[in-house]
Amino acid sequence: MRAQFVLSEIGVGLRRNLTMTFAVIVSVALSLALFGGSLLMRDQVSTMKGYWYDKVNVSIFLCNKADAEQDPKCAKGAVTNEQKDQILGDLKKMPVVDKVVHESADEAYKHYKEQFGDSPLSSSLTPDQMQESFRIKLKDPEKYQVVATAFSGRDGVQAVQDQKGYLDNLFGLLNGMNWAAVAVMALMLVVALMLIVNTVRVSAFSRRRETGIMRLVGASSFYIQMPFIMEAAVAGLIGGGLACGMLLVGRYFMIDHGLELSEKINLINFLGWDAVLAKLPLVLAIGLLMPALAAFFALRKYLKV
């Protein structure tokens, strides 16, 4: 097979169907940019989960005098020293517990003042109104229910709270956004495939005379089909290159410059450039192979050789 002939046919095909080729490139670029973005979003959520779940604590809040008067869970009175020692001893015996820190009412009051000192309520609070608590770090954050079952309802315990529950709502929202991006990507992918098939069909129909002559002189099916497949592959590769550019530009302007999210949102450990660069070969490979395969199967129906 002469490479010069194939390359010339590719150029002719791309120029002849310039409008549809442009539509293919744009649709492939958008769908692959969404595909790469969804992969990066999934990695970002996984990174955030690993980072924050490692920091969350389970808190056991103990009854104080105010709770004994108002909260039915503390109807037996404020927590005693014996009850605190018993709770601490039981916590240390549990295999799921990694570390236990006791926070006194005075320490809780100090921390509240540091975080919410400007709040109007801070001036009316006193240390004896704050709750003592045990801050528990688990070896596995998913084992919260083990602690909750063991200590909920025990004398001297007002509540058992898991900070992980607050993070689950955030991660649920992020996962929902990711699935929405995947749905849009799938729609754009279908559009791109339909455009590729139609482009190949029009190209094959417009060159039916040439392909007929090639068939009469004994050209193989693969030789006849190759220019059409390569046309789709080149258009897809250009679209994949644009998608890679969109991912790089998006990472640059959203995280490092422009919006500068990495500086404005210090609580999130954003993915680095290495994570983005690692996805580019996959995006380019899909951009090359997807149109080529679509063209190959379309030619079996529309190009009778």
UniProtKB/TrEMBL annotation:
Subcellular location, record wording: Cell membrane
Protein name: Cell division protein FtsX
Gene Ontology terms: biological process: cell division
InterPro entries: ABC3_permease_C (IPR003838), FtsX (IPR004513), FtsX_actino (IPR047929), FtsX_ECD (IPR040690)
Domain of life, source organism: Bacteria
Pfam families (UniProt xref): FtsX, FtsX_ECD
Organism this protein belongs to: Streptomyces venezuelae
Family the entry assigns: Belongs to the ABC-4 integral membrane protein family. FtsX subfamily.
TM segment ranges: 21-41, 179-200, 232-255, 275-299
GO CC annotations, alphabetized: plasma membrane
Domain ABC3 transporter permease C-terminal positions: 183-301
Domain FtsX extracellular: 56-160
Primary role: Part of the ABC transporter FtsEX involved in cellular division.
Keyword Ribonucleoprotein annotated: no
Presence of the UniProt keyword Coiled coil in the record: no
Keyword terms: Cell cycle, Cell division, Cell membrane, Membrane, Transmembrane, Transmembrane helix
Quaternary state and interactors: Forms a membrane-associated complex with FtsE.
Topology class, membrane: Multi-pass membrane protein
